Request: fold
Amino acid sequence: MFFQHLANGVLISGIYALVATGFTLIFGVLEVVNFAHGEFYMLGAFILFCFAQQIGLPYFCAIPLCIGTLLIFGILVERSAIRPLLQKSFESMVICTFAISMILMNGSLLIWGAEPRIIQSPLSTPVSVFGIAFTLQRLLVLVVAVAVSIGLHLFLYRTKLGKAIRATAQNKDACVAVGIDIAFISKFTFALGVGLCALAGALVAPIYSVFPTMGQTAIFKVFAIVILGGLGNIQGALLASLILGIGESLIAGYVSATLKDGLAFLLMLFILLLRPGGIFGKAVRTL
Amino acid sequence: MKRETLLYGFLIAGFGALPLFGLSSYSLHVLIMIGIFLILSQSLNLMMGYVGLLSLACSGFFGVGAYVSALLSLHYKLSFIPCFCAAGLGAAALAACVGIPFLRLSKHSFVVGTLAFLLMCDLVSRNWTSVTRGPMGLPGIPSPRIALPFLSPITVSSKEAHFYFILVLSCLVLYGFVKLTTSRLGRAFTAVRDDEVLAKAMGIHTFKVKWLAFILSAFMAAIAGSYYAHYITFVDPLIFDLYYLEVALVTVIVGGAGTVWGVVAGAFLFTILPEFLRVVGGLRLLIYGVILFLSILLIPEGIGGAIRDRLRRRRVAVG
Reply:
């Protein structure tokens, strides 16, 4: 039974990792605490629902379309809301993303209604390996999350654009001096974060039901993860996702299911009390 | 100064005379809600406009106040005044505890942490069913009954009585708020907001100042919540809904963070407007979201702030 819980935890942490990486990336580069992040994830699931269920496209065809749609949407949001506020105070940015989150959540509530939607996937057949049961869809989520994390790491550390992104996170003035187009980097990073959300939403949709407030529960976990890992720290976010995912699954299995959601907060409080910079926290952000 | 006192006197008397014109109980309800949201918004305004910290926990303390008051009056049969005080002080004590780790954080993590606090309150109220009865909520909270010395106790149950009660309460809160923000401590608040390093260099214990502000703001939110519980006579976990936070945010931002009267105007505007437009539920939140979004992009200092800046500019031009 222990290994079953462990496996469940590892599989769920894949989702956390996808959403939290985007969040921490956006924070690292733009210094934006994106409250609308959970809503992009929710929107990813709903757009997939539109393509797969309402239009009737095959699931694997709908995923890229869904990501594409949200990438365009992300760029529009960045252009209209994020960019004009980058020079303003940090609080106005928070309120702006909070407002976007409210608009998206209540907008989806009006469009799609409150009842949870279910999406079929060709991979929802259950399999069992060494007595551990899971669906192929969950395995797909984990595989994609690992692949994306490795890809992202290679991208940030090996490519010129990735290095420019890290440079922007470290020192914007120096970037301007060496001719890095910060406006482009900001746009690119924001779209990348939104794209990761869309991917997570699209992958999760067949596992859980899709409903307009799902982003709100997700963002809470993401907050806990990024605080645990240190704001702006991608490796920290990945490890923290794993800790939270496994911890929640074990608590749900052995203690009580209601305590599960409290773990995120307790971990967060604990970290804030002992190490305000996160477990791997350093004085400087290490993107 | 004398003229201002007279003006406020007339204003309060004018509001006090409103029920005499035979307002419907619905209009009185809207006026009562303005008072409640006014106190809640000023609690956010204190943190955001004066100390410069965006604390999303204020609507959490609002709910904590409501729950403390409801539980004390239902389980221990305490009368209104002890419940009301206990709600304020209880939330203040809670704020004193959680404030210590929260205020040590960077301003980014502070926002995240305070929102997590709000969500945690929601989680506790939903799942601690043996005390809060979970989503079923706590019905049957008695109307405020206030014992007066030498007089028979007053039961605040009619809409008119509630209206006078909240009128007095919000006037007291506003008076205290103005006194606070113009006091030495209030100037320390704005000093911390404008330049924390400089404030520290001037000998202000910035952590203590922020901590005090956090406690005071929690106290204000909690007394509003306590009264709200006794007015509606029911609390459930929806009191921790983001709705209250959003109303407070839109009131403070559009009204003008850091201005007292701008926020008062905001409270009137954003309580009356949705009633007037007859929009409910999700649509109301959607419209608030759009207003908040446009306001932060177009008039980030709010209406009150814009007017204050213009007055200041004129004063500079004249003087």
Notes: The first strand of chain B starts at residue 138 and ends at 139.
